[in-house]
Amino acid sequence: MNATIGIPPAVTEETEPFWNAARDGRLLIERCRDCGAESFPPRGICRSCRARTMEWTEITGAGGEVYSLTVNHQRWLPDLEVPYAIVLVEFPGHPGVRVAGRLRGCSPEDATIGMRVEVGFEPGPGGFAIPSFVAGTA
Ligand SMILES: [Zn+2]
Description:
This protein is mostly beta strands and 138 residues long.
């Protein structure tokens, strides 16, 4: 087990565009051309209508809100500071999309459900950029 700060970088045909965009600091999700449903993580098939006509769309703008969180006390990597919060984040206007990642810029005990966060990326194993979140200032 590695890559526990965020999503394990399992690169497949379905997820390669996501990891490429992540290197540029962009968060891509899938959207169904047939029914418009959005989903994450990418899997190449629509959760709503089972169509395989998924296209990529980018989440931009005002960041997201913490939907749930857990605090990790396990030191998976030697230079990892513990504890830290792992948050599951929802984005306004993107129902069905929840992205997990480490929360930065805020101590775990200050993390709350509903707090505003910005998307950020951190260098991860194998040169991948791993999604993480930065506590909002608002
Ligand atoms: Zn669909």
